[in-house]
Amino acid sequence: MGLWKNLKYVLSDECNGLLRLLVDHYNRRTEKNEKSIREILVKVQQTLDTQEVLDNNMSDSYQELRENKEAAAKISAQCESVFSQCETIVSQISDMETSAAERGQEIEQLIGQEFEKQKEELKKGNQMLAARIREVYAYLEAVNEPDPDAPKVSDLLERIDVLEKKNAEYEKRLETMGAELAEAKQAYDTADRGYQEEKRKVFHLSKKLTQANDKIDDLLVRMKDRSLEDMLQRDEINSPFVITQNKEKYSISAGNIQVMVTRFANTVVLDQFFEQVPDHDPYKKMYNRYQKDIRSTARQFTPKSELEDVLRAFVGVVQEDLLNRMVEAVYRRMKSGKADFEEKLLAALNQYLEAIGFYCRDELRVGEICQEKDLDDMECVQDNRTTGKEQGEIIEIEIYPYYINYIDKFGKRKKLHTKGMMTVIA
């Protein structure tokens, strides 16, 4: 404030001086000092403007000072409030320190009590552990005591020596048996080579025999004076379609499934027969189909398969491809009276079926009355065109039922059969 007052006084003095100078110049005005008068007027005007500005600033400064004083009063009140709060907080902190000291003493007491408790429990646990260790030591001492009934080490060593001597003897025997086996294998190889050579010779001889049989058959055809139909209808014991050698044989069992599969797949007899038959021959087409089906069936099973499943599958192929097709065609052809080729084919078929293990049920007779039990393995075709014969009489047997024996996995003897076909009087 003093500064503003001093400035105001300076400006007033300056303004008064300028006014006196102006009056002086005006009284003594001349053409020369009119310019000075104008300059003094300008300065007087500037001084007045400055003084006005200063007055305005002084007014603003007084207003600002008044506002600052009010703000300072408010701040002073706030500071007193803050000082009061600080004193309260300091008092609370002092109370908290006193409370903390008391709480610390309580915690120290609790910790001491808990430590004593843990110490007592640990002492009890150590005592129990010491007792348990003593028991274990006692048990180990009892276990480590020598067994009076245990064999002596010397006896065991003597026994080991005896066993080693026996093993040495067995090794010598095995070496001797191995040498004998090698000699036997060499002899077998020599015999097998001889057998293969003889087999080739037999094959060439069989070709010559076949040619000779063809010539003999031509001669026999000329000499036959009986019809083949009479031959087919005679006693079935002598029928070329009946095979009976395997009735009492049980060569197939659950333990030799692979052997049985090999039997069905071994078609060497039929292969040799059809070797010289042209491919367009209907019998050869039937046989090719049978070969394909039997080999496909053989690939479906393993040695671990169930015997009944394997055998039933093979019997089904024989029924469908050999009996229902080939054997029935052979029968019809032989019945017509022109069957030189079919007689040879039937002989080959019978040889193959016998090698597998099949045989025919030969209780059936043409001219006898069909029984109800016969329908178990025979399909019956009724004929009402024949007169003068008894109802149910068998007048024709196209296909006999073929049986095969086997022993199941429980050792029980069983049979499987194909379906035959016959014609009876209605």
Describe the structure.
Helices cover 69% and strands 8% of the residues. It has 9 helices and 6 strands, in the order αααααααααββββββ. The protein has helices spanning 2-27, 34-143, 153-223, 228-232, 257-265, 268-274, 282-298, 307-336, 340-356, and strands at 358-360, 378-383, 394-399, 402-407, 413-417, 420-425. The chain has a 3-stranded antiparallel β-sheet. The chain has a 3-stranded mixed β-sheet with strand order 2-6-3. Strand 4 and strand 5 (413-417) form a beta hairpin. The longest helix is centred in the N-terminal third of the chain and has 110 residues, at 34-143.
**Number of helices in the DSSP assignment:** 9
Say how many strands there are. 6
On the 0 to 100 scale, the average pLDDT is 79
Q: Could you describe the largest sheet, including whether it forms a barrel? A: 3 strands, antiparallel
What percent of residues are in strands? Answer: 5-15%
Percent of residues in helices? 55-70%
Q: What is the CA-atom radius of gyration, in angstroms?
A: 68 Å
Oligomer: single chain
Order of helices and strands: HHHHHHHHHEEEEEE
The global form is: elongated
Low-confidence stretches: 224-237
The computed structural class is mainly alpha
Q: Report, as a whole number of angstroms, the end-to-end distance.
A: 157 Å
* Order of strands in the sheet with most strands: 1-4-5
Q: What topology emerges from the helices and strands here?
A:
Elements: H1 2-27, H2 34-143, H3 153-223, H4 228-232, H5 257-265, H6 268-274, H7 282-298, H8 307-336, H9 340-356, E1 358-360, E2 378-383, E3 394-399, E4 402-407, E5 413-417, E6 420-425
Parallel strand pairs: 2-6
Antiparallel strand pairs: 1-4, 3-6, 4-5
